TrEMBL record:
Transmembrane segments: none
GO biological process: adenine catabolic process; hypoxanthine salvage; purine ribonucleoside monophosphate biosynthetic process
Gene Ontology terms for molecular function: adenine deaminase activity; metal ion binding
Adenosine deaminase domain residues: 31-373
Annotated protein name in UniProt: Adenosine deaminase
Keywords of this entry: Hydrolase, Metal-binding, Zinc
GO cellular-component term (any): cytosol
Lineage, broadest ranks: Eukaryota, Fungi, Dikarya, Ascomycota, Pezizomycotina
Length: 383
């Protein structure tokens, strides 16, 4: 696949603005469930600047980079990270993304910081009618900097309570292990998180996938399933051995395979993987804006459509909006519609898929499903 055919950063921004300028009232008002957003991927330049100023912490785009002195310098450095059609090396881009992403964690020190971070996302979610979300967090990126668990988790818990009460956005957390760290570290973190299990609904796996297959983490995922957690893992698009990783995630890990797969778009290229996913009814969380940065424009829509038309329960989500042209769930849904030619009925299917593959209680699911139907009927009154 030629990355040289992917859209440039400027064209992606133009596409985003064009999609927002067109009528998007139905998608905006559709009640939403978001299942794939990294809380640390929502640290925008503005939020990072605010927290850095408050804590007096140094501001860098990468660990050994020069110290940045202003919000404008940070914005310019983040802009430079954006993959461009002229930058051909996918691996190098991924490396730079992860370097900047983990450096971004440095602004988080106090319970108030974790609270502000979660409220920043939940506040945005409320404006685009997200009713329920399951949010990823990467504890190893915080404990490795000496942040105590209670600082992180109590900040998250307070934001969760406030958002539910004041913004009517319900939420739960998915604890992700960093797959480029050891399975032993994952196990250690799993055990340390158990006191907070009443706000953690599931366990995930993210970070750099190269040579880190799902099966490597079988022990901790099996234990988590036995303990009642739901399970998911990233299968990043076009990563090395993508098909084998999807096969393990769908049918091998924790005895029979996971409950969901994050990304996994390469399944569209292999009928056997599609059958496997359908047979086990594994839900998939897609983030089209993220793929637009690496995949050719012409290929992306058809691949998403293959999964959708096969009847796989795909949902549309945002991933790391602060690093992806400020594209949140709304922009991702607009892009999916644009690329796949989805009509409002299809968008309802996608919204319902997200509800159905979520790990919310039946009561929460039923309420959101009813609300989706009401909004559809309001926009499409019977003749
Ligand atoms: N962690 C945060 N963003 C990620 C991504 N896009 N892929 C894998 N791990 C991640
Ligand atoms: Zn992700």
């Amino acid at each position: 696949m030629g990355i040289e055919e992917a859209l440039s950063a400027e064209l992606r921004e133009k596409l985003r603005d064009d999609l927002l300028a067109a009528d998007h009232k139905f998608i905006l008002e559709l009640p939403k469930v978001e299942l794939h957003v990294h809380i640390e991927g929502t640290i925008t330049a503005e939020l990072r600047w605010k927290l850095t100023q408050r804590n007096g912490t140094p501001l860098r785009i990468a660990k050994n980079g020069p110290e940045l002195q202003s919000l404008e310098e940070l914005q310019a450095a983040m802009d430079l990270l954006r993959p461009d059609s002229s930058r051909v090396n996918n691996d190098e881009e991924r490396f730079q993304f992860f370097e900047a992403y983990y450096e971004g964690f440095e602004c988080l020190k106090t319970k108030e910081d974790y609270f502000d971070l979660a409220m920043h996302y939940l506040g945005h979610a409320a404006t685009v009618n997200v009713r329920y979300c399951e949010i990823f967090f990467d504890p190893q990126g915080h404990t490795s900097r000496g942040i105590p668990w209670n600082i992180m988790m109590e900040g998250f818990r307070e934001a969760q309570k406030k958002a539910e009460k004041e913004l009517k956005v319900k939420s739960a957390w998915i604890m992700c292990f960093l797959r480029d760290m050891s399975p032993e570290s994952a196990m250690e973190h799993y055990k340390a998180a158990l006191p907070y299990r009443n706000i953690i609904v599931g366990i995930g796996l993210d970070s750099n996938e190269t040579d880190r297959p799902p099966a490597l983490f079988d022990e901790v995922f099996s234990l988590a399933r036995n303990d009642g957690f739901k399970l998911t893992m990233h299968c990043d698009v076009d990563s090395k051995n993508a098909h084998e990783h999807i096969r393990q995630a769908a049918s091998v890990v924790a005895g029979k395979g996971l409950d969901r797969i994050d990304h996994g778009l390469n399944a569209a290229e292999d009928r056997r993987l599609i059958e496997l996913i359908l047979k086990r009814d594994v839900g998939m969380t897609l983030c089209p804006w993220s793929y637009l940065r690496h995949t050719t424009y012409a290929e992306l829509g058809p691949k998403i459509r293959v999964l959708y038309d096969a009847g796989i329960k795909i949902s549309i989500n945002s991933d790391d909006p602060a690093y992806m042209e400020d594209c949140w769930i709304l922009q991702n849904m607009l892009l999916a519609k644009h690329l796949c030619g989805f009509d409002d009925k299809d968008l309802v299917v996608l919204a319902r898929n997200a509800v159905n593959i979520s790990w919310a209680s039946s009561a929460v699911k039923e309420n959101i499903l009813k609300e989706i139907d009401l909004v559809y009927d309001r926009f499409h009154p019977a003749q």
